[in-house]
Every structure is written in structure tokens, then in C-alpha cells.
Design a protein that fits this description.
71 residues, elongated, mainly alpha
């Protein structure tokens, strides 16, 4: 943990949250980001990325629930 200059795992794990169609994998990615706090890789702050990832996951879950309720 701490700070490194290289881009490492944070951006890659965040890509999973953004792009993966499987909800279970997105949840796992958020858990990994939780374990990385307070790591910082270049401009990537794990805490800030975690908060955004949680927002994305919550909104995608809410959207899925709303769609199933409408049907």
C-alpha cells in the first residue's frame, strides 16, 4: 500500500466495474478496490475510484431492478 508512480491495478480493476457485463464480477472488483485503500498509483487514488465504482454499481443495480419491476 502507499504510493507508486506506475499505473498498476487500480485502473484495471476500475475498468472491470465500468465495462464488465457480469454483475458478480463488478461486485468483486469493488471489493478489490476496498482492499486497496489507501493506495495511490500516479494520479489514481484508490479511495476516489472506490467511491465512483460504488456509485456505478449502485446505479446499475437500481436500473436492473427498475427494469424487472416494469415488466
Amino acid at each position: 500500500k502507499g504510493f507508486v508512480f506506475d499505473n498498476g491495478i487500480i485502473s484495471c480493476v476500475f475498468d472491470v466495474v465500468l465495462l464488465c457485463p457480469e454483475e458478480d464480477l463488478r461486485k468483486e472488483a469493488v471489493e478489490i478496490l476496498r482492499q486497496l485503500v489507501p493506495r495511490r498509483e500516479g494520479t489514481w487514488c484508490s479511495f476516489a475510484v472506490l467511491k465512483k465504482a460504488e456509485e456505478i454499481l449502485a446505479s446499475s443495480q437500481g436500473g436492473s431492478k427498475r427494469m424487472s419491476e416494469d415488466q
